[in-house]
Design goal:
Layout: E1 8-12, E2 15-19, H1 23-27, E3 39-43, H2 51-57, E4 64-66, H3 67-80, H4 86-89, E5 93-95, H5 104-119, E6 127-129, H6 136-141, H7 159-172, E7 175-176, E8 182-183, H8 186-207, H9 219-245, H10 250-253, H11 257-264, H12 273-276, E9 289-290, H13 300-315, E10 320-321, H14 323-341, H15 353-361, H16 364-377, H17 379-402, H18 409-413, E11 423-427, E12 430-432, E13 435-438, H19 441-448, E14 454-462, E15 465-473, E16 486-491, E17 496-505, H20 511-552, H21 570-599, H22 605-630, H23 635-639, E18 644-645, H24 653-659, E19 660-662, H25 684-702
Helix pairs in contact: 3-17, 5-17, 7-8, 8-15, 8-16, 9-13, 9-14, 20-22
Length: about 700
């Protein structure tokens, strides 16, 4: 009994992750509980990984690679290699002797690899590489048969048979073969020849019955001419029979004078619908239909065709046609019409019976079937050619994929970037390593907000190309992160993109930011308050000045004189000043208590007290930020992009700090602190502050705060 595989795990992101180092580890993944996998699926687009390899692994072509598909890829590649450790190398070349040819699939793959090398003029080569497979599609499509079971006209050498393939495509449709050319499959060919045989049998039935083909080969043309005017001729004879039934009906059935008067005001032609709606000829009791005189001009051409193709061949050169003769013609074509209703469905009939019989008599069905069979015969060989490419890609890429799927080893070790990291964003003096491509900013942000990570969504533009990214800011602060700020994004290929912030998910970034947050908010509030007050005062002063200038230009007389201003209310303003005094006294008392408490301390205790006071103010925001930073999670950011992350992939404070680089001077750099444009230092604010301090101390001494009796 084979002993169970011994696994190694490493701790990162707050959870245990499997360490995959050898081919044995890869092959044993099928036995590892998938609850221990970091991810169970990922999209095939929007990540930094070879899309062709992902498409090969994505067996159901649904745009997602799942755990079972990864396992199937590992099992397939491992079975074709003599040493599974080759899957760990990551090399894009394969030594032919490493292919396991002890079973049919391996043997066919080895033969195909040698065939490819031979076609490239490398018959003696001992290895094959991805560069040899760069034109694999051209190589496959260049083969006479490519194993897809589709034959295009270009593959048929004989002109007659090639014309038949063209007719099959025209009548029964086509499918694209591996070369992209349109061709016919076995199903399409069978459908065509089945319809052709049915049409030939149906036509033979008509040929054998003189009642059906009353005019031989010309019956179809005669029937077309007959059908084109049948209803109008029947209408004419019915009207004439009504006139015979009641002579009074003849005039109104020929249309009234008023009807002709309405036509008189119009521009008429033989193609006018109004003219065509009139009877075929003038109505009279039992009147024969003349082919030459008294005919509605809108129907003259079709009546001439009826006379030439139907009446003359069947009844002789008659210049008129009576009701009995018309009924006889209708009976003769009734059998033909019934036969026409039985015509097989499909477009094969458009080729004509002559061409259809030429195809059937030429044994073209057997020839087409033979070509399709020859194409299918190389299906295994062509699949083996594609398998060579597949094995090379799996050998190069599977190990990298597994270390970014089963575990996030690349991401958490920092030695290489994870496949979901699409580049680096430089903005606000920082470099953000955790950047993911985003298709829909609004949709992504709605879910990614649960990650607890501060995310800046940027629109990146390079020439005519555009894409959206989400960049995680995990160090520094968010004071100057705002919509509209510009930066530069470098993708994994080193190309630079113009980046502009379009949306921000504001979350705590660091404990340092949380510590200074209350003071920044207070400073911002005071600054905004002072600015509003200054603006208000400036506006009031400007308004008063304008009013004074206007009032100075007025001549106040009589009824236009302004009412006198009310007298100064001493009592009212005394109350206001009293209230202000109380407020100032209360504030002064608080300040006095604080200052007194500080002065009562020993000299070395004062800095500790100030630090404790600052910590007391900042502690709530720091504690809240600490809890949020502890809960930062990578999973929602990736899940919003279509991943199925199976673990709580945390981004703790130390690891988060490593994901965002802060600006710092290079080691050994020389720095000059002389700034010729620095703000000039003025001493009078310090003098004022010292004077205020002395006055405060004097006031406290005077009121006995320092023990004066």
């Amino acid at each position: 009994m084979t002993p169970p595989h011994t696994w190694n795990f490493f701790r990162a992101g707050g959870f245990d992750q499997v360490q995959i180092d050898t081919g044995a580890d890869l092959l044993a993944l099928k036995d590892l509980d998938q609850k221990l996998w970091v991810a169970l699926s990922c999209p095939t687009r929007g990540i930094e990984f070879d899309t062709r390899t992902l498409d090969l692994i994505d067996s159901d072509a649904d745009g997602r690679v799942r755990a079972n598909e990864v396992l199937a890829a590992i099992a397939w590649a491992g079975a074709l290699l003599k040493n599974a450790d080759l899957l760990v190398e990551g090399a894009d070349r394969l030594v032919l002797s490493d292919i396991d040819d002890s079973f049919d699939e391996g043997k066919n793959l080895l033969l195909s690899a040698r065939h490819i090398l031979k076609s490239l003029g490398k018959s003696e080569a001992a290895q094959i590489s991805m560069s040899d497979m760069s034109d694999i599609e051209k190589f496959v499509t260049g083969l006479q048969f490519n194993g897809d079971g589709v034959i295009s006209p270009q593959q048929v050498a004989e002109a007659g048979l090639r014309s038949t393939v063209d007719d099959i495509i025209k009548c029964a449709g086509s499918v694209a073969d591996l070369s992209g050319e349109q061709g016919v499959s076995q199903e399409i060919a069978d459908q065509f020849f089945e319809q052709a045989a049915a049409f030939s049998d149906w036509y033979a039935q008509g040929e054998s019955d003189a009642v059906i083909l009353v005019l031989g080969d010309q019956t179809q043309h005669a029937a077309d001419a007959f059908d084109a005017i049948k209803d109008k001729v029947s209408d004419y004879f019915t009207r004439c029979q009504l006139a015979a039934f009641d002579p009074r009906a003849a005039l109104p059935l020929s249309r009234s004078t008023e009807d002709y008067q309405q036509l008189a005001a119009q521009n008429l032609s033989a193609q006018s619908v109004e003219v065509a709606n009139f009877p075929l000829a003038g109505i009279a009791a039992n009147k024969p239909l003349s082919f030459t005189t008294g005919v509605n001009p809108a129907w003259q051409s079709r009546l001439d065709a009826l006379h030439a193709k139907v009446v003359t061949p069947v009844l002789g050169k008659n210049e008129t046609l009576d009701a009995a003769q018309w009924d006889a013609l209708c009976v003769k074509f009734a059998a033909f019409e019934a036969w026409q209703d039985q015509m097989p469905q499909g477009r094969v009939g458009g080729l004509g019976i002559t061409r259809i019989r030429e195809i059937l008599d030429g044994n073209h069905k057997a020839l087409v079937d033979e070509l399709i069979a020859c194409d299918k015969a190389v299906e295994t060989e062509v699949k083996a050619i594609h398998s060579v490419e597949r094995l090379l890609r799996y050998k190069r890429d599977l190990f990298v994929l597994v270390n970014n799927f089963v575990s996030f080893r690349n991401f958490y070790t920092g030695r290489e970037k994870g496949i979901f990291q699409v580049g680096t964003l430089y903005l606000d003096g920082r470099s953000c390593q955790l950047t993911v491509k985003v298709a829909d900013v609004v949709k992504h942000a709605a879910f990614a907000a649960m990650s607890g990570v501060c995310l800046a969504y940027c629109e990146c533009v390079r020439g005519s190309d555009k894409m959206n990214i989400a960049a995680a800011f995990t160090a520094g602060d968010s004071d100057y992160l705002m919509v509209g700020r510009n930066g530069i994004f470098y993708d994994r290929q080193g190309r630079d993109w113009d980046a502009a912030i379009v949306h921000i998910i504001d979350q705590p970034i660091s404990i340092r930011q949380a510590f200074w947050s209350p003071y920044k908010k207070l400073s911002r509030a005071i600054s905004e308050g002072l600015q509003k007050l200054a603006a208000s005062r400036a506006g009031t002063a400007g308004g008063n000045m304008f009013k004074a200038v206007v009032d100075a230009g007025k001549v106040v007389t009589g009824a236009h004189a302004e009412p006198p201003k009310p007298a100064f209310d001493v009592g009212k303003f005394a109350g206001i000043f009293a209230a202000i005094g109380l407020a100032i006294g209360a504030i002064g008392g608080i300040l006095a208590s604080v200052v007194g408490g500080m002065l009562s301390l020993k000299f070395w205790q004062i800095p500790l007290a100030l630090a404790g006071l600052m910590l007391l103010v900042s502690c709530p925001s720091m504690v809240l930020a600490w809890f949020k930073l502890k809960r930062r999670n990578l999973a929602p950011i990736l899940d919003a992009n279509g991943w199925a992350v199976n673990a709580r992939a945390r981004i703790n404070i130390p690891f988060g700090t490593s994901l965002t680089g802060l600006a710092s001077l290079p080691a050994g750099a020389h720095r000059s602190l002389v700034d010729p444009f620095a703000d000039k230092n003025t001493l009078w604010p310090y003098y004022v502050l010292i004077a205020a301090g002395i006055c405060s101390l004097a006031g406290l001494w005077y009121v006995g705060f320092f023990g004066r009796h």
